[in-house]
Amino acid sequence: MNMSQQSPSPSADRRLSVLARHLEPSSSTTVETSIVAAPTSGNAGTNSVFSHIVRAPEDPILGVTIAYNKDSSPMKLNLGVGAYRTEEGKPLVLNVVRQAEQLLVNDRSRVKEYLSITGLADFNKLSAKLILGADSPAIQENRVTTVQCLSGTGSLRVGADFLARHYHQRTIYIPQPTWGNHPKIFTLAGLSVKSYRYYDPATRGLNFQGLLEDLGSAPSGAIVLLHACAHNPTGVDPTIDQWEQIRRLMRSRGLLPFFDSAYQGFASGSLDTDAQSVRMFVADGGEVLVAQSYAKNMGLYGERVGALSIVCRNADVASRVESQLKLVIRPMYSNPPIHGASIVATILKDRNMYHEWTLELKAMADRIIRMRQQLFDALRARGTPGDWSHIIKQIGMFTFTGLNSEQVAFMTKEYHIYMTSDGRISMAGLSSRTVPHLADAIHAAVARAR
C-alpha cells in the first residue's frame, strides 16, 4: 500500500480534533478566563503606579529663573542664576570659542567615535597643567591622574563616589554656607556631610577663627571641601596668609583637601592668581583632589566640560587610582562627550588662542568688578543705611548682600528683582543700566525694615 494513502492514526485524529476546537469561535456557553490588567498596562484604569509620588519643590536657584520668566514686567531683573551676561544683558559666546569651533568643524578628519572612559587625553593633560601649573612637580613626576567629567558637578560626584568606595574616612566637611548642590552630591555618593564655619554675617566676611576651630576638631583623615577661589555664594575668600594657615592645620590633622575650582581666572582675571590656593596644597607633596569646571571661564555652560584631578604620593598609586576611577565612571555615564572638551583642548594648546582667551577672560572679570564698584557707589550716593563695603571686598560672580528673605521678597514684589532668598546676587547679571534700579530696590528694602 502507498504510505501517502494511509488513514490518519488515532493519535493524529485526536490532535486534529483538539486543534479544530481551538479554532472554532467560542459559543455563549464557553467559560472565559478572566485576565486582570497589570498595574503598568494601559488597561489598568486611571491609577498610576507612581500615584504616591509627591511634587518635589523647585530647585531654589533654577526656580528663581522660572519665576522670572513668568513675570511680564519690562523692569524685571534676574540676579539668581550664575551665568555671565554682557552689558546688554545677553549671553556671551567667547570669540576664541567660536574660532575653536570653526577649526573643529573644518577638520574633516574628526569623527564622532566614543572617547575612552577617562575622556580626551589632550584635554586631561592640559586641564591638569592649567590648575596645577605647567611646571608642577606633581605632573612631572606622573603623580596626577586626571579624568574628563561632566562639568564641575560631575567632577565632584565622580570624586565623591571614588572616596566613598576607597577612602578610609567617609565624612566630608563643607563650608557654611556653600553652593546648594554640594550637600546633595556628597550625601547621594554615600558620604556623611558635616559643616565648618565660614561666613560671618556680622562682618559679612570670613569667620576665620571659627573655621580654624572647626577644622581643628574634625576627626583625623576627614575630607574637607574647599572653594579654590570666588566662594559661592558669599564671594568671601581667605587671604594667602590665611590659606597657608589652613594648609598647615589640615596637613597636621591629616585632613584630605577636595577643591572645587569653578571660577579659575573668572574671579581676579588671572588664571595663576585664582589657582594659588590649590597649588599651595600640591607643593607640599601631599594628596589633593581638584574638581574643575569650564562653564564660567570659557562660557561653556551647556557643553558640560569639567575634569577631576587627583594628586597622589607617587606614579604607581596614581595609576591604580585611575583604574578605579574608570570603574566609577563606566556604569555612571560610560564616557564623556567629545565636543566641549575638544574646544577647550584646541584653545589651551594653541599659544595665540590661549592668549586671546586670557584677554577675554580678564574682560569678563573686570566687568564684574566694575559692577561691584558701581553698585557700592550707587548705594552710598543714596545714603542707604548700613556698611556696603563688603560688595567691593568680595570677589567673583556672587555677592552675599546681607539682605534677609523678607527684604528679598519685597524687592521681588515691588521691583521685579529676582534672587535667591538668602540675598545672594549674581553680579554678572548686572549692567550699568540696571544698577540704579537694583540700588533703589535695596535702599527701599533696607529703609522699610527700619
UniProtKB/TrEMBL annotation:
<dbReference type="InterPro" id="IPR004839">
    <property type="entry name" value="Aminotransferase_I/II_large"/>
</dbReference>
<dbReference type="GO" id="GO:0006520">
    <property type="term" value="P:amino acid metabolic process"/>
</dbReference>
<keyword id="KW-0663">Pyridoxal phosphate</keyword>
<dbReference type="GO" id="GO:0020037">
    <property type="term" value="F:heme binding"/>
</dbReference>
<dbReference type="GO" id="GO:0006979">
    <property type="term" value="P:response to oxidative stress"/>
</dbReference>
<dbReference type="GO" id="GO:0030170">
    <property type="term" value="F:pyridoxal phosphate binding"/>
</dbReference>
<dbReference type="GO" id="GO:0004069">
    <property type="term" value="F:L-aspartate:2-oxoglutarate aminotransferase activity"/>
</dbReference>
<dbReference type="InterPro" id="IPR015424">
    <property type="entry name" value="PyrdxlP-dep_Trfase"/>
</dbReference>
<dbReference type="InterPro" id="IPR018028">
    <property type="entry name" value="Catalase"/>
</dbReference>
<feature type="domain" description="Aminotransferase class I/classII large">
    <location>
        <begin position="75"/>
        <end position="442"/>
    </location>
</feature>
<comment type="subunit">
    <text>Homodimer.</text>
</comment>
<dbReference type="InterPro" id="IPR004838">
    <property type="entry name" value="NHTrfase_class1_PyrdxlP-BS"/>
</dbReference>
<protein>
    <recommendedName>
        <fullName>Aspartate aminotransferase</fullName>
        <ecNumber>2.6.1.1</ecNumber>
    </recommendedName>
</protein>
<keyword id="KW-0032">Aminotransferase</keyword>
<dbReference type="InterPro" id="IPR015422">
    <property type="entry name" value="PyrdxlP-dep_Trfase_small"/>
</dbReference>
<keyword id="KW-0808">Transferase</keyword>
<comment type="similarity">
    <text>Belongs to the class-I pyridoxal-phosphate-dependent aminotransferase family.</text>
</comment>
<dbReference type="Pfam" id="PF00155">
    <property type="entry name" value="Aminotran_1_2"/>
</dbReference>
<dbReference type="InterPro" id="IPR015421">
    <property type="entry name" value="PyrdxlP-dep_Trfase_major"/>
</dbReference>
<dbReference type="GO" id="GO:0005739">
    <property type="term" value="C:mitochondrion"/>
</dbReference>
<dbReference type="InterPro" id="IPR000796">
    <property type="entry name" value="Asp_trans"/>
</dbReference>
<dbReference type="GO" id="GO:0004096">
    <property type="term" value="F:catalase activity"/>
</dbReference>
